[in-house]
Amino acid sequence: MPRNTWNGSVNKYYSITELTREFGISTRTLRFYEDEGLIHPERRGRTRLFRPADRRLIQEILRGRRIGFTIAEIREIIQVYKDPPGELGQLQLLMSRVEEKREELRQKRKDIDDTLTELDNVEEACLTRLAEIGVGT
């Protein structure tokens, strides 16, 4: 029966230090994900040992965060994968969430464009008024 080893090729574990360096995140971030129930490293005393599955989950959590998913949304996507219908349900949910995020970003882009247009109008009104009162810019 294969033994769990720290640095061996069978059932390799990753230390918290290895993962923080690899992903450029803090130990506090990993502990937060653990506290939120997103990852479940093994514990040996006070030492956390992360399995390859934990590493993949961290990678997916970070991807989700980069595209704007909340921790609650990420938790939901992870949970759907674990429950029936499994991966199919997860993929369908993820596609739905991606479309929602895409629509949110489109709305934000429109809001920014509208605000920029309004700022242009205010600036133009100020320049016009300055010209009317004889102040050069």
Description:
- The chain is mainly alpha-helical and 137 residues long.
- Helices cover 66% and strands 4% of the residues.
- The chain has 5 helices and 2 strands; from the N terminus they run ααββααα.
- It has helices at 16-23, 27-35, 52-66, 71-82, 87-132, and strands spanning 42-44, 47-49.
- The protein has a two-stranded antiparallel sheet with strand order 1-2.
- The longest helix has 46 residues, at 87-132.
- It is elongated and about 80 Å long.
- Residues 1-9 have low confidence and may be disordered.
Salient structural properties:
single chain, 137 residues, mainly alpha, two-stranded antiparallel sheet, 2 strands, elongated, disordered N terminus
The helix content, as a percent range, equals 55-70%
* DSSP, total strands: 2
Could you say which overall geometry the principal axes of the C-alpha atoms support? elongated
Helix and strand succession? HHEEHHH
| Biggest β-sheet description | 2 strands, antiparallel
Structural class: mainly alpha
What's the mean pLDDT score? 88
* Beta-strand residue percentage: under 5%
Distance between the termini: 82 Å
Q: If helices are DSSP runs of H or I spanning 4 or more residues, what is the number of helices? A: 5
Please compute the radius of gyration using only Cα atoms. 24 Å
Q: Within the largest sheet, what's the order of strands?
A: 1-2
Low-confidence stretches: 1-9
Summarize, please:
With 137 residues, this protein is mostly helical.
Task: Map the helices and strands.
Elements lengths: L15 H8 L3 H9 L6 E3 L2 E3 L2 H15 L4 H12 L4 H46 L5
Antiparallel strand pairs: 1-2
